[in-house]
Amino acid sequence: MVLGDSIRHAAMFVLGLLAFVGGASGAETDLNAALQQALEGRGHLGKLLEHVPERTIQTTESATRLVSLLEKTSLEDLLVEVEGVSQLDIVITLFQEAQDAAAIGILTRQGIPHLYRLSNELQPQLSKSSEREFLFLLQVFAGYKTRAGSLRVLRAAREGVLEDHPLWPYVFDPFLFDHNDAVRILQELTKDLPQGQIGRGVLDCANALLAEGGGFEHPFDQDSGVDRLASWLNGSGDDDVSEIQSAVAALPFLKHAKRAELLEVAFHHPHPLVKAEAGWALERLGDSRGRNLLLRISKDVRYSWIARRYLKELGQSKSIPKEVLTPAFLARADLCQFLSHPAENGRPPDQVKILDARSIQWPPTRRKENVWLIQVIDDAESPGGPAYKGIAFVGPRISYQPEMLKDVTEIEQMYGAYCAWELAQNADPRIAGQPTPEKGWLLIKSANPKWRRLKRSP
């Protein structure tokens, strides 16, 4: 069963938007100093944190200073942006990434009420630049599991605030993780199903909880809900096939008379991802067509990953064909899944061809690893996005960096480029300055003195 694109969580927001949480271990006092300077009005929080290596709340002192900052800083000042990031963005991230239990207790008791106040101030004056902050405030409320926070999410959902914003489904994600108010919120929203992306969030949340054994009626198990599922199933799905997947994922949990009809629509849908979802749903309902459909899809390298995942989830691991479990097939399938992620190319390529495969000492891990260079070709233009073509690396990590290989033609240099890139990502001191194919290749060659040079390169 799919949940949107996958199980999403708050860190997706910060990793993509701010690139500011984490980093090398540093002194907590640096964070405290930055918070104190912001409290004294001596700079934008983003700039003050720019050179702070550790930016997570790990002590009660940091939590207390963050609460004081919220208490004394106006909404107008919190919304000031530097390089597209507001101070409120960063505050939200600090709440989301807090780690110490005692610190989280302070944020819950003293900080959340200030965020609640800010959300009420922000809602009447929402603009394009502040919509994101408002929705992630709601996500923080859900994540901190207070009754007042849950009710704030419920109120915004009922009022249809920003109902078509694509981030709304993320607001419901914290309700998936041992949340006492999850079922109550869903049941309240069942009475009048929200429209747009709020309704999508309700759908995904209910699907996931019921798949884990939740004992409540699906919010969409009513005429209005089934009509909406049917409209998604009968749509093209060109812009977002995951919307259709979510609709199919709800079908095993419905008792509505139209369930069988919708299952047939899903079974005959042309998109392999929808077919995989139909296979999961049918097998869950005891229809053997589901398993057979998943077995067929598992042989398509572009979609094999999801089909195998569903077969395992349904207790059908032993039926997975041996030919899709070979290292070479798995490398290609894993790459297709990686490239399908919205943060990458958004869909699998049309072709995946292995250029080179080896078992070598891999400098980034200092271990012997199976590694592949794989050529990917996608000729399709929209609706899936622009065509793409290049050489990807599959090993301990998967990476696709076509710009990095733009002028690289030798296999050895390709491995070198990905080696250097991975070492740089790990802040490894063996790569000083700019990571280059030459630097990476020298390390590979040193670790593999018996390297067999290819007679030809692509």
Question: What this model shows, in words?
Answer:
- A four-stranded antiparallel sheet has the order 3-4-5-6, sandwiched between helices.
- Helices cover 51% and strands 8% of the residues.
- It is built from 21 helices and six strands.
- The longest helix is centred in the first third of the chain and has 22 residues, at 101-122.
- 41% of the residues are buried.
- With 458 residues, it is α+β, with helices and mostly antiparallel strands.
Q: What structural category arises from helix and sheet content?
A: alpha+beta
Number of alpha- plus pi-helical segments: 21
Give the tally of β-strands.
6
Gross geometry = flat
Task: Give the strand content.
Answer: 5-15%
Strand order in the sheet with the most strands: 3-4-5-6
Mean of residue pLDDT values: 91
Query: What's the structural domain tally?
Result: 3
The string of secondary-structure elements, in order, is HHHHHEEHHHHHHHHHHHHHHEEEEHH
Largest sheet: 4 strands, antiparallel
Assign a percent range to the helix content. 40-55%
Backbone CA Rg: 25 Å
Give the low-confidence spans. Answer: 4-27
Distance between the termini: 39 Å
Summarize this structure briefly:
This protein has 458 residues and is of the alpha+beta class. It has 21 helices and six strands. Strand 3 and strand 4 form a beta hairpin.
